């Protein structure tokens, strides 16, 4: 039972009524007078020089206003930002002389309707001179064919970190093992594609942007690319985003649409269709091969890990290479491993570029770590759970400093694991599995214990690019109480289903002791907004929750100051209850909420000196534990708060067809105090579903010629309600000492452990055949091929 | 090519709507762009995601796979038409709010249509029947768990 | 993904549809359920100059039981056929197969004839037509003709329908034997997806349990759906032992020519063919015994 009045209790979400009645306001719902539509011309080649582009036929087509090519566009806008130090790896929305992946945009057609723009796009003639392409990342590492010749190699980033006594650990341990695990290229693929509407007002010289966006520093990067001052760009955050889970960074789409809006003096709409989105939206996820080595003793103690992670980011990069850096903050997982060597390598190939995906690289890393743990158990003939129990950091060891420099704030991993096993009825599950095996079926139980770093201290930015000394990861909230006594909270970012309006109203209601259902939550735009780093890195429960609480406390302080002044006492003599304030012990001496509000707004003569009139407060704060720079050997505090999940899964594989089915799924979850438990559970269920997709179904598959073979929903297989089984979540709460209410983040929950758990289960199911699969997705075909090896 | 406009008369959410449409205009685009019923969403335009689901003569169909001209003479119900005449939420819409059967809301209108069509034909569905009825509606936020809960709740409320 | 422009007519009758087909030749396509056609138009893989909408022709929507067959109008919705219990009793394979066809929304619009005319080698209804030896009635302004399924399916996505012909109705044979059982099984990656491999089987037993009639086939392992009448004939007279059924299934798997794609290699498909054909036979046998 929650210790709080509103926090931690079930409540309907504020956002939902408009969505269930079809009154959401997504970017494609926005219609501006005179708005024009953009369609793209995309390269069919993975690598080619553009010899010529002829646009006459397209320009002459009905309803067409303009055809823009890279020649003009790249001369008048600046290259988009890249997260690592690679100034020669330039990138624009339109190709500049050369195309580097199949699907790269070469020209943009502007017409009166999307259909007419598509008609005209077919009439644009492009002469390509195909160039050699490199599609395999190993080959790309060799560098014979360069994606960006000016950069000199295909390697965007490479470093070997050595934390702790790695040599000694490997030399001194009883045993060693090594193997390779691969995480296939997939992404969280929201059902709404990316879209942007841009409008330039020549009168006010303001660029208005509405977009389906989830991106830090989006207005700033848009302005910079367009060579505009920051205060010329107004991003409207009150656009409902139809899911993002990391990927909706749309900076190239935005600069393109905005440029055209200014150029042609008309509002522009660019909504990706699904084909554009899959191939040219630049929203694919990590594509990573891990070479793992473990050093361990016969009693199961893991002494050290060596991790080499090669990630194929595609032909261009934004923040994507940084997804190799974030896992540094949890590089040993939830385990007590004192020596880690980590060698991340970010390499380019002629494929669609990657973008940030839920977890920012943590899920692939958790998968690799958990496969290693399972293999150590198998090697020693030790129970996988026992091995974990032995190596998991214990409750009494927190705060726990890991070799790469992050301190884990709190946790009780053993209890969460026990709760998950109990909820899964583990002993019965084992019996069931063995019965299934006796009946000739393949059945396996999967176990995964993983961390979800949360809070968004994106110190991987400066870790991976010392020239980028950014250490500020803030968020904010503005709270207003108006003359009628109604409360309004203002959010400074867009949301994509995380329930931030519910979060803010719950926190405000809790601190001010007012009913959350009476609290309004609205959004600023980027010209009126307080600083925000947007909902990434599982940070908003912590950061927005904390900022909201901070602002609410300032309001409460102001109210107490007013009452103290009017009662001629000190604030310590007062009792605040439900917004009313009375003198302790003298209940008749009371000022109601309404009366206090009136004084604040209208009765200056009763306002204490120094207090601003009105009743409003803002709060901007830095992420807890943030502000530090990395050491010379790359140690740094990454995210502040560590949530934990323990998955227990039963999988059955049809021995005839190799079809995998998930029969039982339990997830134990500890993210500290949950402000809105229903919302947290919802995101966890969704994260598990994303994980099921990555583990069994989803892959951006490329041919040897660099063509995307799974570019529609017929081939890129997103799990439906028939593939995702009934899911059970069992909660535990180990509060964070770093946050207002003890909350940790949970936006990535489920996704960070599910692929590891399902891989564990499939491998357990295949173990009687003495075969294994260490590559995701474990498609039907991959499972069958693996089974065949045995025969 | 064809600039021909075809006259259509379609009953949409109980109201007769008349229009002149090019043949290639999809039903979902007509509903959204001309009638401004933006509750129905576009997700893939090739008949897989189900976000565009509407009811045609009471049965769930994908509005991206029909042309508006084909709806002439038929009855279309969109998510906006699920609310009660007084503007209040239907039991199903309310159930979705109660069980948190949504997050970003993008797949939700299609889910509601598919689920309502199920309940109209089968007021006491099993869990498997619920999952199958929404099997053609993809969701990336919820993992379907609380959506199934919502449909089950709505079914239990209707006597 | 907006379709390229096209001219459109809603045909009021079969006659009108045929007239339009004759006039426009291969510049026209019939629009029935649209579940296969419209995605291809949205992706601009198809851009017919004319679409002839046959959805409103009442004469193409019917289910009529006869003594030896059930006649189904080509534009009958798959969902209507799926719900028809009398039809399910007489041609059980149809309902069994339709359980694997897409999702509710697909079947509410998709038509029986549309799926057959589209002739996707991995589709469920063409397999049932092939296995049962359905007869397809084709109409043109010149008259009509009937083809059996084996002649109808000529290749991947291709049939013997002439450019001026419209599929009008399909005759599904009814087995009169009292102890008849049938089964349809499929390996698809997600529920409702295209079949990686599908198998259908129908057997009839006498009172002693001896097989007196058999038919089975496979989809997605050749250019057309494949029936194996010779192998099925080999089962007649036997007691349909496990060994016999498995041997027939393996022979069928050896005889097919599957292709490979993103989701399955040819080898995997061949393996699945043997496994699924055996399962279909087994299940059909169990149902026949219980009948």
In short:
The complex is a heterotrimer of chains A (about 800), B (about 160) and C (about 290). With about 800 residues, chain A is α+β, with helices and mostly antiparallel strands. Chain A is about 30% helix and about 25% strand.
Protein model, in words:
- The complex is a heterotrimer of chains A (791), B (159) and C (291).
- Chain A is of the alpha+beta class.
- Chain A folds into 3 domains: 16-21 and 474-622, 2-Layer Sandwich (Aldehyde Oxidoreductase, domain 4); 31-131 and 194-271, Alpha-Beta Complex (Aldehyde Oxidoreductase, domain 3); 288-459 and 629-790, Aldehyde Oxidoreductase, domain 4 (2-Layer Sandwich), CATH 3.30.365.10.
- Chain A has 20 helices and 30 strands.
- Chain A is globular.
- The mean pLDDT of chain A is 97.
- The mean pLDDT of chain B is 97.
- Chain B has a 5-stranded mixed sheet with strand order 2-1-5-3-4, covered by helices on one side.
- Chain B folds into 2 domains: 5-82, Beta-grasp domain (Ubiquitin-like (UB roll)), CATH 3.10.20.30; 91-157, [2Fe-2S]-binding domain (DNA polymerase, domain 1, Orthogonal Bundle).
- In chain B, 32% of the residues lie in helices and 17% in strands.
- Chain B has 159 residues and is α+β, with helices and mostly antiparallel strands.
- Chain B has helices spanning 27-34, 91-99, 108-121, 127-133, 145-157; strands at residues 5-12, 15-22, 53-56, 59-62, 75-77.
- With 291 residues, chain C is an alpha+beta fold.
- Chain C has 12 helices and 14 strands.
- In chain C, the strands form 4 sheets. In chain C, strands 4-5-10-6-7 form a 5-stranded antiparallel sheet.
- In chain C, helix 10 (229-235) packs antiparallel against helix 11.
- The radius of gyration of chain C is 19 Å and the shape is globular.
- The model of chain C has no long low-confidence stretch (mean pLDDT 97).
- Classes of the chains: A alpha+beta (791), B alpha+beta (159), C alpha+beta (291).
- Chains in contact: A-B, A-C, B-C.
């Amino acid at each position: 039972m929650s210790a709080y009045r509103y926090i931690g209790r079930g409540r309907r979400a504020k956002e939902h009524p408009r969505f269930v009645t079809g009154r959401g306001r997504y970017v494609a719902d926005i219609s501006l007078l005179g708005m024009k539509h953009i369609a793209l011309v995309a390269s069919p080649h993975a690598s080619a020089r553009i010899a010529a582009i002829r646009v006459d036929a397209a320009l002459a087509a009905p309803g067409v206003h303009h055809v823009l090519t890279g020649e003009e566009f790249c001369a008048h806008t600046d290259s988009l930002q890249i997260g690592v130090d690679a100034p020669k790896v330039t990138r624009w929305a339109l190709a500049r002389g050369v195309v580097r992946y199949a699907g790269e945009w070469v020209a943009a057609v502007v017409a009166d309707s999307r259909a007419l723009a598509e008609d005209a796009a077919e009439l644009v003639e492009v002469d390509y001179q195909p160039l050699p392409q490199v599609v395999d990342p190993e080959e790309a590492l060799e560098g014979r064919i360069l994606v960006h010749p000016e950069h000199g190699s295909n390697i965007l980033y490479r470093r070997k970190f050595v934390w702790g006594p790695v040599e000694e650990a490997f030399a001194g341990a009883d045993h060693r093992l090594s193997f390779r695990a691969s995480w296939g290229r997939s992404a969280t693929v929201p059902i709404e594609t990316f879209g942007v509407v841009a409008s330039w007002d020549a009168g006010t010289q303001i660029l208005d942007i509405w977009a389906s966006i989830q991106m830090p520093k989006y207005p700033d990067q848009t302005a910079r690319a367009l060579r505009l001052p920051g205060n010329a760009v107004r991003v409207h955050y009150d656009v409902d985003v139809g899911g993002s889970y990391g990927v909706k960074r749309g900076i190239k789409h935005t600069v393109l649409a905005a440029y055209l809006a200014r150029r042609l003096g008309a509002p522009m709409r660019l909504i990706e269709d699904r084909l554009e989105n899959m191939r040219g939206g630049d929203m694919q996820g990590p594509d990573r091969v891990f070479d793992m080595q473990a050093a361990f003793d016969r009693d199961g103690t893991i002494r050290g890990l060596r991790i080499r992670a090669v990630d194929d980011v595609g032909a261009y990069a934004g923040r994507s290479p940084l997804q190799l850096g974030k896992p540094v903050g949890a590089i040993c997982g939830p385990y007590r491993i004192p020596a880690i060597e980590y060698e991340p390598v970010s390499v380019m190939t002629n494929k669609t570029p990657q973008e940030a995906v839920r977890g920012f690289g943590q899920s692939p890393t958790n998968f690799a770590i958990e496969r290693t743990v399972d293999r150590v158990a198998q090697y020693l003939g030790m129970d996988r759970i026992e091995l974990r129990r032995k190596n998991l950091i214990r409750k009494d060891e927190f705060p726990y400093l890991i070799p790469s420099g992050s301190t884990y704030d709190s946790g009780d991993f053993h209890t969460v694991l026990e709760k998950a096993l109990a909820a899964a009825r583990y002993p019965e599950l084992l019996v069931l599995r063995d019965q299934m095996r006796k009946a000739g079926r393949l059945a396996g139980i999967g176990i995964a214990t993983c961390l979800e770093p949360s809070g968004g201290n994106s110190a991987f930015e400066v870790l991976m690019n010392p020239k980028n000394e950014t250490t500020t990861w803030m968020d904010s909230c503005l709270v207003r109480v108006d003359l009628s006594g109604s409360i309004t909270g203002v959010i400074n970012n867009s949301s994509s289903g995380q329930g931030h309006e519910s979060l803010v109203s719950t926190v405000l209601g809790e601190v001010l002791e007012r009913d959350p259902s009476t609290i309004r939550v609205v959004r600023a735009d980027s010209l009126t907004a307080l600083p925000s780093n947007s909902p990434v890195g599982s940070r908003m429960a912590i950061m927005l929750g904390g900022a909201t609480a901070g602002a609410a406390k300032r309001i409460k302080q102001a109210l107490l100051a007013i009452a103290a002044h009017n009662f001629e006492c000190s604030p310590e003599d007062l009792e605040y209850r439900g917004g009313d304030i009375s003198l302790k012990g003298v209940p008749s001496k009371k000022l109601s909420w309404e009366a206090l509000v009136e004084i604040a707004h209208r009765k200056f003569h009763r306002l204490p000196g120094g207090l601003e009139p009105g009743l409003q407060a803002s709060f901007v704060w830095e992420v807890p534990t943030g502000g530090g720079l990395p050491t010379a050997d790359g140690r740094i505090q990454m995210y502040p708060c560590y949530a934990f999940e323990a998955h227990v899964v039963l999988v059955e594989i049809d021995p005839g067809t190799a079809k995998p089915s998930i029969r039982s799924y339990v997830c134990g979850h500890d993210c500290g105090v949950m402000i809105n438990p229903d919302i947290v559970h919802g995101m966890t269920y969704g994260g598990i579903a994303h994980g099921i997709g990555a583990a069994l179904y989803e892959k951006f598959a490329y041919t040897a010629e660099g063509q995307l073979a799974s570019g529609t929903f017929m081939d890129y297989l997103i799990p439906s309600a028939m593939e995702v089984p009934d899911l059970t979540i069992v909660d535990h709460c180990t509060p964070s000492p770093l946050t207002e209410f003890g909350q940790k983040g949970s936006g990535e929950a489920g996704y960070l452990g599910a692929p590891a758990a399902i891989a564990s289960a499939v491998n357990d199911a295949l173990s009687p055949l003495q075969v294994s699969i260490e590559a995701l997705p474990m498609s039907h075909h991959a499972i069958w091929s693996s089974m065949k090896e045995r025969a | 090519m064809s600039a021909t406009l075809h006259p259509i008369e379609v009953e949409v959410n109980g109201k007769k709507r008349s229009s002149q449409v090019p043949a290639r205009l999809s039903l979902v685009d007509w509903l959204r762009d001309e009638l401004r019923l933006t509750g129905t969403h576009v997700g893939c335009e090739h008949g897989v995601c189900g976000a565009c689901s509407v009811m045609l003569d009471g049965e769930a169909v994908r509005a991206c796979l029909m042309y508006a001209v084909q709806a002439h003479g038929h009855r279309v119900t969109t998510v906006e038409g699920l609310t009660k005449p007084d503007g209040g939420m239907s039991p199903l819409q309310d159930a979705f709010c109660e069980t948190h059967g949504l997050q970003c809301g993008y797949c939700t209108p299609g889910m509601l249509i598919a689920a309502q069509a199920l309940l109209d034909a089968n007021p006491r569905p099993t869990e498997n029947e619920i999952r199958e009825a929404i099997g053609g509606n993809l969701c990336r936020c919820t993992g379907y768990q609380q959506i199934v809960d919502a449909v089950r709740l709505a079914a239990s409320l209707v006597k | 993904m907006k379709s390229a422009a096209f001219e459109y007519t809603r045909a009021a009758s079969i006659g009108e549809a045929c007239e339009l087909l004759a006039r426009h030749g291969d510049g026209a396509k019939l629009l029935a359920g649209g579940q296969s056609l419209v995605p291809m138009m949205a992706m601009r893989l198809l851009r017919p100059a004319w679409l002839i909408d046959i959805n409103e022709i009442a004469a193409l929507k019917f289910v009529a039981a006869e003594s030896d067959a059930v006649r189904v109008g080509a534009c009958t919705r798959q969902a209507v056929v799926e719900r028809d219990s009398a039809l399910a009793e007489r041609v059980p394979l149809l309902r069994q197969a339709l359980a694997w066809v897409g999702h509710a929304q697909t079947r509410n619009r998709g038509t029986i004839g549309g799926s057959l005319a589209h002739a996707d080698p991995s589709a469920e209804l063409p397999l049932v037509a092939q296995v049962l030896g359905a007869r397809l009635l084709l109409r043109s302004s010149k008259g009509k003709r009937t083809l059996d399924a084996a002649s109808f399916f000529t290749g991947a996505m291709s049939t013997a329908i002439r450019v001026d012909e419209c599929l009008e109705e399909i005759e599904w044979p009814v087995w009169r034997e009292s102890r008849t059982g049938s089964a349809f099984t499929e390996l698809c990656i997600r529920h409702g997806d295209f079949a990686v491999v599908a198998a259908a089987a129908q057997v009839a037993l006498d009172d002693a349990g001896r097989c007196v009639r058999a038919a089975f086939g496979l989809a997605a392992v050749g250019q057309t759906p494949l029936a194996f009448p010779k192998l099925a004939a080999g089962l007649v007279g036997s007691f349909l032992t496990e060994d016999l059924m498995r041997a027939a299934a393996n022979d069928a798997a050896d005889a097919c020519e599957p292709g490979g794609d993103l989701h399955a290699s040819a080898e995997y498909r061949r393996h699945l063919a043997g496994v699924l054909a055996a399962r279909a036979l087994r299940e059909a046998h169990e149902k026949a015994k219980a009948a």
